[in-house]
């Protein structure tokens, strides 16, 4: 058997239309957008524009020029954090963040450039809006949060936090790594200033493509993090100050952009709600069966249904890494163990330093996958 349950890391398999579109681009098009006027280059331009339109529509944003492509969501968050924050800014984040948020913020704080407040979640990975409200200062400039935890799948009250930011004139940056493609993300309704996204997870794109959407207001104070060729204003030694060129130096990953575009179109065709409902059904099936296994510790608030497809657990009978290894080596169940690049989350839920075994579900998983996984865990622990 080969059961893939590491979709929070990267989704697998991808829809066939994704790989087909990448193959077609590499074999039949291959041009460099913005650099050439021949047919191949112009076709690449058309595909690039179509991808920006797809992404803007998917997240309910009205200006495709403000859709910026990067290599991944870590790059997007670093561009936003290092390019937008200024000396003396106060930033609020939380303990459920991935290191792609925490590490650049900690570096800025350690260099005495920003002030940083980290809101602790409860033991189930949920943060309280009142705690954020209490942390706001006169110089609070940004709130930077993950939409959902990559360890637990806990979904944060983003709409309430967005209203809080709007009322207090605070820029709001959202890390959508675990939510885009699973949850409805309305940029305007959530009062976002920037939305960072990655292609290779629930948007069903390939690895190596990501990006962000930025408002004009935030763009005004944000400096480009990487400078270079953009295919525009080549006569000038200054970086263009208009979007998207301001943030898109160097050759874009067009095969990745084409694949991501088709991944989002696949989601639109299947229906975002249908994907969420199937994932939730399989997650609930997994949770309910794990509860029946002795010596299993689930990091779960059973009274709360606000979760994506991640499930974290441990066993009191076996080391975390050993259990993960047995699932993969003996039963072919692809999973992840450890701290999942989110150490503060594990401190909040009491699983530090060993971390957890994490199983994460995708739209392509089945009831048979879940039943086989439960049976395998039972066999290992017995």
Question: Can you put this structure into words, describing what you see?
Answer:
The structure is a single chain. The chain has 382 residues and is of the alpha/beta class. The chain folds into 2 domains: 3-12 and 271-381, Aspartate Aminotransferase, domain 1; 16-269, Aspartate Aminotransferase, domain 2 (3-Layer(aba) Sandwich). 40% of the residues lie in helices and 15% in strands. It is built from 12 helices and 13 strands. The strands form 3 sheets. A 7-stranded mixed beta sheet has the order 2-8-7-6-5-3-4, with helices on both faces. A 4-stranded antiparallel beta sheet has the order 9-10-13-12. Helix 1 packs antiparallel against helix 8 (254-270), helix 2 (39-58) crosses helix 8 (254-270) and helix 9 (272-291) runs parallel beside helix 12 (367-381). The longest helix is centred in the N-terminal third of the chain and has 20 residues, at 39-58. The model has no long low-confidence stretch (mean pLDDT 96). This is cysteine desulfurase. Its cofactor is pyridoxal 5'-phosphate. It comes from Clostridium sartagoforme.
